[in-house]
Amino acid sequence: MQYSSISKITLEGRVLFVKRDDLIDPHLAGNKYRKLYTLLQTPSSTYDTIVSYGGTQSNAMLAIAAMAQKKEWNFTYYTKQLSQTQRKQLSGNFAHALALGMEHIELEDALYREYIASLRLTADSRTFIVDQGGAIGEAKVGLEVLAQEIIAQKKSGAIESDIYSLSTPSGTGTTALFLALALPEYKVYTTPCIGDVAYLKEQMSALAELPKNLIILPPKKKYHFAKPYKEFLEIYKKLLKSGVEFDLLYAPSMFEALLEQTNEKILYIHSGGVSGNESMLARYSQKGWS
Ligand SMILES: *Cc1c(COP(=O)(O)O)cnc(C)c1O
Fold first, then answer.
1. What digits encode the pLDDT tens for the residues 255-271?
2. Whose CA is nearest to atom 4 of ligand 1?
């Protein structure tokens, strides 16, 4: 496969570079492509079913659905009970994932935790379980491939020679952590978009020891994940005007932190998620924000 390209954008007068992992595939792009890389390279005959769980508009869910379709694997996805509003708004990632063949199973809220914990105990060797958000150790290899691409693009001149800082936003922190481990000569800036700095560190520590070149910037204020914020929409629109569409859940907080807490040249690794904007923009417009 070709390397994802580099774009130059300007946000509030600041020049930033973007590695366009969002362009890899319509459904299987961004960091979910990198995290699922090992599974994508696995022969189809190794598994017959992929099981995962989490939110109904998850980007990971859509990426797994696209992968399962390509590999001809069944895909079973567990969520908690859908709310009335969710049931009515089954557009966006959820609708796309169903169209790709995902089987959706709703669990009673009271049973959810226990059931998810039991998946691993009952799964056979032909079933692979992808933890929520794709937080799997197998993600390491895909991020090493990304690191090699960055090194090669630096050599070829596609990435300017004086860039030694990267950035990508965190949910589970899997992407930022494995990227930092794979590129010790670069700084990797991230920010927690789910929970706070302490929670992010805890999540990351379950995967590996945190390296010194991984820098966690605190968000400007306490944001609740997947809640619409006017300032997020503003940053999203400014970025769009500059020529690149980013997701509405993670990217705005990361860019806000970068603008306020850094000043060097940065290569932002686009983490994908643009397919989720359809349902998010609908929620913004319900609030009368557009
Ligand atoms: C999943 C996701 C993230 C978070 O990735 P982690 O590896 O869980 O930290 C960031 N940005 C977008 C757009 C995502 O879909």
1. 999 999 999 999 999 99
2. 171
Mean pLDDT, residues 109-124 taken together: 94
**What is the side-by-side strand order in the sheet with 165-167?**
6-11, 14-19, 267-269, 165-167, 187-190, 214-216
User: Considering its fold, how many domains does the chain have in total?
Assistant: 2
Task: Give the residue, out of 18, 23, 143, 170, with the most ligand 1 atoms within 8 A of its beta carbon, to mutate for a pocket test.
Answer: 170
- Angle subtended at Cα 77 by Cα 227 and Cα 68, rounded to the nearest 5 degrees: 110
Q: Is residue 75 part of a domain?
A: yes
How many A from CA of 171 to the centre of ligand 1?
A: 5
Ligand 1 neighbours by CB, cut-off 6 Å: 30-31, 59-60, 133, 169-176, 247, 250, 271-273
Q: Which of 50-59, 86-95, 200-209 has the lowest mean pLDDT?
A: 86-95
**Which residue range(s) make up the domain with 123?**
34-134
Indicate whether 197 and 276 sit together in one domain.
Answer: yes
What 3-state class would DSSP assign to 58?
Answer: coil
Are 63 and 181 found together in one domain?
Answer: no
**Domain boundary pick from 105, 134, 163:** 134
User: Residues 107, 168: one domain?
Assistant: no
Mean pLDDT of 162-178: 97
What is the pLDDT, as a whole number, of residue 90? 72
Q: Cα(147) to centroid of ligand 1, in Å?
A: 17
Q: What residues contact residue 120 under an 8 Å CB cut-off, 6+ apart?
A: 129
Is 1 inside any structural domain? no
